[in-house]
Amino acid sequence: MRKCSALMIFLFSFLLLALQNLEVVSAVGCAGNFFNASSIFRQNRDDIFSTLADKVIANGGFYNASLGNSSNRVYALALCQRGYDQQACSNCVQSAFRGIQTNCPDRMDSFTWDKDVEDNVSCLVRASNPSTFGKLELRPAIIYPSPLSIETSKNMTIFEQEWDGMVNGTVEAATDTETSSVSKYFGARKAEFTEFPNVYMLMQCTPDITSQDCKTCLRECVTLFKNQFWGRQGGEVNRPSCFFRWDFYTFHGAFGNVTRVPAPPRPPAQEKGSSGTEKKGRSTRSWVIIAVFVVLTLINILVFIGLIKFFAGRRRSNNGNNIGSAEYSEADGQFMLRFNLSMILTATDDFSSENKLGQGGFGTVHKGILPNGQEIAVKRLAKGSGQGDIEFKNEVSLLTRLQHRNLVKLLGFCSEGDEEILIYELVHNSSLDHFIFDEERRSLLTWEVRFRIIEGIARGLLYLHEDSQLKIIHRDLKASNILLDAEMNPKVADFGTARLFEPDETRAETRRIAGTRGYMAPEYLNHGQISAKSDVYSFGVMLLEMICGERNNSFQGEGLAAYAWKRWVEGKPEIIIDPLLTERPINEIIKLIQIGLLCVQENAVKRPTMSSVIVWFGSETTIIPLPKAPAMSGSQCQSEDGTMSMSNVFTELSSR
């Protein structure tokens, strides 16, 4: 039985690896952040989809538009391939967006090149947030190879040379910039080959990208096909920005009359017996297809049975033993990646001092490298810490169910003996406090960069409060718990003290005050009252820190919020702006000071939601309310419960 299970796991892993290497995904490419079924984003997407078919026809075969505000804004694009009548184009676009609604019901980024064999039409529909207009998008890729292979008796060397030459000619035709803006980036060719029937090839890019980007996209499609399916009798590769297809028979009106028939029979080597040879060839190919189908069906059945036995056995043995380097462990209905301790020891060189990145109240953080080359940050909790156990379980249970580009990604965990370890993605640019509060590094934070960081943090909080499947209050939001990736994109970290709310729950009370003074809302610090507005308060303090470049506790006796409020009342809010922001859009910065003061108002009810904050960020016409006085709480900035901050996690990275 163990050998059988091991075989099933091997087959399943092999299939997953093969699919990953082939970049094969479903007919609809889904990516980006998640959204709720009842969200405004979904309604906006459905509304803009409902008009796409008419709009793309009215605009000559290509149309792009947007609908909504800020995080709920939907950017849509539709394109019909050249040469089709209007009704066929309309039908194709409608079919395409129905496919997206069905296959990507909760993902913000999606695309599909839809095809209708009856109407001989192909079209692209894309939806995204943020905008992808004018940007080259290569992933995900969708591949449709022909199930038939080219006869090995043919001279493939000559065929490949002629095929590559045809590719070069079609790419040049498709990237010719002299055609009009709507119908440009299209190339269709028919070529005669030495030992083969005619070959037909079609390439097309969306007209919003540059000619060079179009060429890059098409070359990537060709390379992917040759690397994975060379030797097949045709196929196609779809990417969000381009389309490539070739075959031995006509499949598009640009080639002349569409025949919709298989490849023409190859000329016989000699007249005698040609009919029998042709029938034998067709019969052989049929049996090959049937054999492949049967084998794949049997493998799927065996893998399915093996997985059932595998997970059933693990449940009976209380999650069982680790298999290989990592396994999935079931806890609270969630599947989480569990790493072997031996694997972690190898990755971190036995937690060597050379790999140590930082140390906090609950343990150390080390850099590690997995066998596949991926760099990781390993957070090793101190042994025997009861509060550390709570943080460990809380962070694992929450982060395994959250996915957002502005949240730190938990890759897995390890819990063996007295070791409790969390494994994160490695974020190379340290934490925000090592930039905004450092005299030299702060100069790297232009206003454009600071605004992007502020907006990214706001989007991460909006996801936690409203857009994720869970409703989570962070409770310890501050600059040291914001990590910055290589492109200075923020990622909210440290969910050890986070609180999970029920969907209809708006406020809770606790006796355990966990967080950092100066960032905690007064109702939470004084009365233990927790709500989303608690995080809004912390966000407001951090926003003001980003504008002035000073820590909250630098303003002794009153705190940054009180200092900023006094300058606001005096009519001189620009006084608090960081002098290093020499090229500063003063009106925009003052608008953010106003938003920050609204977030730190003493009355929690008066504070805005994060969705309102996002709308204000992106609007120049929305009237923003005037703030009231902030809470005059102390500004001493120390951890109330010793919570391990991520501030020391990546301290040394930026200097290495």
Written description of the protein model:
This is Cysteine-rich receptor-like protein kinase 39. It is found in: Membrane. GO terms for molecular function: ATP binding; protein serine/threonine kinase activity. The chain folds into four domains: 144 residues, Killer Toxin P4, Chain A (2-Layer Sandwich); 100 residues, Gnk2 domain, C-X8-C-X2-C motif (Killer Toxin P4, Chain A); 100 residues, 2-Layer Sandwich (Phosphorylase Kinase, domain 1), CATH 3.30.200.20; 223 residues, Transferase(Phosphotransferase), domain 1, CATH 1.10.510. 37% of the residues lie in helices and 20% in strands. A hairpin with a 2-residue loop joins strand 11 and strand 12. It is globular. The protein starts with a helix and ends in a 38-residue tail after the last helix.
